[in-house]
Amino acid sequence: MKIGLFGGTFDPIHFGHILPVKEARTQLGLDRVVYLPTAIPPHKSGGQVAPPHARWTMVELALLSEPGLVADPFELTPQREAFTVDSVEHFRSAFPAADLYLLIGCDSFAELHTWKRWKDLVDMVKLAVLVRPDWRPGALEAQLTPEVAALMEADRVCFITNQPVAVSATRLRRVLAEGGQPAEGWLPELVLEYIHKYNLYQ
Fold first, then answer.
1. 30: CATH
2. 62: which of 6, 9, 35, 125 lies 20 to 30 Å off by Cα?
3. Pair 18, 66: CB distance under 8 Å
4. 173-202 pLDDT tens trace
5. The pLDDT of residue 163
6. Within a domain: 190
7. Residues 118, 84: Cα–Cα separation, whole Å
């Protein structure tokens, strides 16, 4: 079995969180991708608006019609920060025979050396790096520390060729807070209905 893990605040979840992941699932032959909404992200401060339970609900709604994409509440513990290495250890223990892939963006890959126990992390999973809208060939390598760059030579990193989706959660929150209507193709309709029903970003 091949399982992908994809964490984030998803505030709110949008098609930039979904379409590249679907392409990664196809290219890597993953049986499923597990979304891990995070209650307390350790690498972000400020800017988060929707409470954890609302972000969880939005992820569930967004994935209802997406085969092979599922949500798991492991990181949704308000009392503690969620570190990726702890989540990976959990899934490695739950699925000892599975091939695990951690799906991350280029920016996260460049900051990997700042993550808690990152060397233990890459011993347990392969990294599947998703292309971001502002990514350019050759630019990423210049941002990496020598140790992280060495992972590419050691066959621990897969670069996913995907069509980037030019939308961000920050931009979405700003549009919604101003009473605007997100552009078509930015986020699933059920998620937008949920946001409007509970006035999450106003």
1. 3.40.50.620
2. 125
3. yes
4. 999 999 999 999 999 999 999 999 999 998
5. 82
6. no
7. 9
Going 151 to 9 to 88 to 86, the CA torsion angle's sign is: positive
Domain count, the chain: 1
Confidence of residue 20 (pLDDT cuts 50, 70, 90): very high
pLDDT digits (tens, 9 = 90+) for 76-111: 987 788 899 999 999 999 999 999 999 999 889 999
Q: Is residue 201 part of a domain?
A: no
CA distance 6 to 134: 20
In the DSSP assignment, the letter for residue 34 is E
| Structure letter (DSSP) for residue 47 | -
Within-domain flag for 11: yes
List pLDDT tens digits, range 32-67: 999 999 988 776 655 668 999 999 999 999 999 999
| CA dist., res. 140 & res. 52, Å (int) | 32
Distance CA 162, CA 133 (A): 10
Select from 201, 187, 200, 202 the least CA-distant residue to 59. 187
Rounded CA gap, 140 and 38, in Å?
26
| Two tokens, residue 35 | 């979304």
Residues 6+ away with beta carbon under 8 Å from 155: none
Pairwise CA distance, residues 30 & 138, whole Å:
27
